[in-house]
Please model this.
Amino acid sequence: MPTLSAYFGPDRCAVDVSAPTKADAVAALVDLLAAAGKAPDRDALVRAVMEREALAPTGLGSDCAIPHAQTDAVTETSLAAIRLAEPLDFSAPDGTPARLVFLIAGPKDSAALHLRLLSRLARTLCDPAFRAAAIAAPDASSFAAAFLATDPPENVTA
Model:
């Protein structure tokens, strides 16, 4: 799998985001992608993510959620991440609200990559050391660096 940096950059990360509702959190994530030029149809992407969220909630538990959508509103797969100022209910199985929220947005024909990224994110978010680093990060750059540091080292052959 390509590295996370192929789909995510520090410009798609924010901390202490105020979002009183799930729709506000999704809008904040989509706005990060739009500002980075990755969401040419911002409103359509917000609608697609919220429609997907209505089908099945994306709360993982342990302070985390991964809203996501495959839609014609984007032309390439991208990730965004926020740390919420106040935890928000994403209907996690353990009943805990989410503080770390990651968005995956990809085109409709990206199912295989979408599933690989969902799996990769879920594994990363299960790591208590990563969650602690992300929650303690003093700024967006530190949060993004903690996330990108979870990439496995590249295989180097001599």
